[in-house]
Structures are given as C-alpha cells and as structure tokens.
Amino acid sequence: MKRLMSLTILLALVFAFATGTNAQERYSRKEIKAHYNSSYNYEVQIMGVGQDGTKVMKVWGFGKRVEDAIIEAKMNAVASVIFKGIPGGYGAAATPAILTDPNAADKNAEYFNSFFSPGGKYLQFITMTTDGMPSGQDRLKVKKGFKVAIYAQVMYDALRKQLETDGIARRLDSGF
After folding, report:
1. Is the pLDDT of residue 18 over 80?
2. Distances 153 to 47, 59, 116 between C-alpha atoms, Å
3. Mapping DSSP to helix (H, G, I), strand (E, B) and coil, where does residue 5 land?
4. What DSSP letter does each residue of 68-136 carry, written as one string?
5. What sign has the CA pseudo-torsion 130, 134, 137, 140?
6. Is the per-residue pLDDT at 146 higher than 80?
7. What is the pTM of this model?
8. pLDDT over 90 percentage in the chain
C-alpha cells in the first residue's frame, strides 16, 4: 500500500512538472493575434510555371465576406512577390523577393499605400485563374468571416519593371 501511494505521488509530480514546462512554451493570445494579423503573414503556394515572366500560385485571404477575402488574397499574391518571394514546388524553383531590403515597405510607405489602395495599381499585375466564387476546401468559414484561396497569375517581370521605373526597386543590371 505504501509503495502504491509513493508511486502515485511520484507520477503526480512527474505529470505536474511536465505540464508546467509546456506552459512556459506557450504564447499569449496577444502574441498569437499579432502573428496572424501581421501584414507580412501570407499563405502562398506555387502551383507551377506560368507563361514567361509570370508566376502561378494559390493564395489565401481573410475577410468578413468572401468578396473581401478574395480582394485580400489578390493583394497578398502581389505583396508576397514584392516583399517575401515565393517558395519553390510543383516543378518551379523558389523565386526571391523583388525588394531585398526588409524595411522597403516602411521606407516607401506612401508609394505602397497608393499602390495597394482599392482599385490600385497592383491589380494591373494579377490575373485570377479561379473561375467564379471559391468553394469546398478553398472557401472556409472561420470565426470572424471567411478564409478563401484563389489561383492567381502574377506578372512578375512586368511588376519588377514597374517598380524599377518608379525608383522603388534596383535594376538587375545596376551591379552591387
């Protein structure tokens, strides 16, 4: 009986210690919310090689309505090409970001506020390849609205050229 009691206490201590160490590794709700609401948090998946100078990808967006989520997904597609690059996969190599300076968005905030405004210039560089409203796994109901995936083609070369012309990106032939 005494052995059983000491074994029970030992197991309880081990269990308490194990859950105590896991609690230290958890993030607060505020930290998690900041992570997911970050303007740099894009869900992008390359779907293959498009026509010359284009990138075909699946991009996710969030919104209270499906239409809002689609608009955000379009902006995320262009923003990921500009600021983060695109991971490789499906026969396509990884594509580096057009702007390599991590502070480029802040340094050119006025330009990008105008560029990504409703009906802004970013729309010239994206074509949706999704027909109609997304459905099934590409349209998920979440707590505060919808998470929607679209298939999009971004005109990478034309976007790079525009950013170079506007003085935002360095030309590739400008050297180091």
Report:
1. no
2. 10, 10, 17
3. helix
4. HHHHHHHHHHHHIIIII-B--BTTB--B--S---TTHHHHTHHHHHHHTSTT-GGGGGEEE---SS--G
5. positive
6. yes
7. 0.73
8. 20
Contact 156, 149 (CB under 8 A): no
Closest CA to 51 of 172, 159, 155: 155
The residue type found at 82 is I
Q: Which residue has the tokens 């396509």?
A: 92
Q: What is the pLDDT of residue 90?
A: 73
Q: Which two tokens stand for residue 60?
A: 């996710």
Residue 147, SS3 per DSSP: strand
The answer to whether the CB of 168 falls within 8 A of the CB of 108 is yes
Q: What is the mean pLDDT of the chain?
A: 78
Q: Could you give the CA distance from residue 86 to residue 165 in angstroms, rounded to a whole number?
A: 22
Secondary structure class of 41 (helix, strand, coil):
coil
- Helix %, strand %, coil % for the chain, to 5? 45, 20, 30
Dihedral sign (CA 13, 19, 25, 26): negative
Residue 5 token pair:
């009691």
Contacts of 163 (CB under 8 A, 6+ apart): 82, 98, 99, 169
Token pair of 55, please? Answer: 């990138």
